[in-house]
């Protein structure tokens, strides 16, 4: 189930994005970016719709997925 970012409390959205960007293996290219810069990049992607907030009822978890990965989960 998709969760519109506008329905989340701003602090909750911030924490969700921070947890996402702090995951091991998240790649932002060759340059080092601050946490604030990474959060801003992901927030921009969420606002454009290229990254979605997805709730899994089965796993009872929330995750951020890019459009391609979200569509892949739908087809499974």
Keywords:
2 strands, alpha+beta, 76 residues, Arc Repressor Mutant, subunit A, single chain, two-stranded antiparallel ribbon
Compact overview of the structure:
This protein is of the alpha+beta class.
CA distance, first residue to last residue: 14 Å
Q: Give me the secondary-structure category.
A: alpha+beta
Q: What kind of assembly state do the chains in view correspond to?
A: single chain
Number of domains: 1
Strand order of the largest sheet: 1-2
Report the uncertain regions: none
Beta-strand fraction estimate: 15-25%
Globular, elongated, flat, extended or rod-shaped: what is the shape?
Answer: globular
- Record field, number of beta strands: 2
Mean pLDDT: 89
CATH architecture: Orthogonal Bundle
Give the biggest beta sheet: 2 strands, antiparallel
Radius of gyration (Å): 13 Å
**Percent in helix:** 40-55%
Total of DSSP H or I helical runs spanning 4+ residues: 3
CATH superfamily: YehU-like
Query: Tell me, what is the CATH class?
Result: Mainly Alpha
CATH fold assignment? Arc Repressor Mutant, subunit A
The ordered string of helix (H) and strand (E) elements is: HHEEH
Explain what this protein looks like in three dimensions:
With 76 residues, the chain is of the alpha+beta class. The protein has one domain: YehU-like (Arc Repressor Mutant, subunit A), CATH 1.10.10.610. Helix content is 47%, strand content 16%. The protein has 3 helices and 2 strands; from the N terminus they run ααββα. It has a two-stranded antiparallel sheet with strand order 1-2. A hairpin with a 4-residue loop joins strand 1 (51-56) and strand 2 (61-66). Helix 1 crosses helix 2. It is globular. The model has no long low-confidence stretch (mean pLDDT 89).
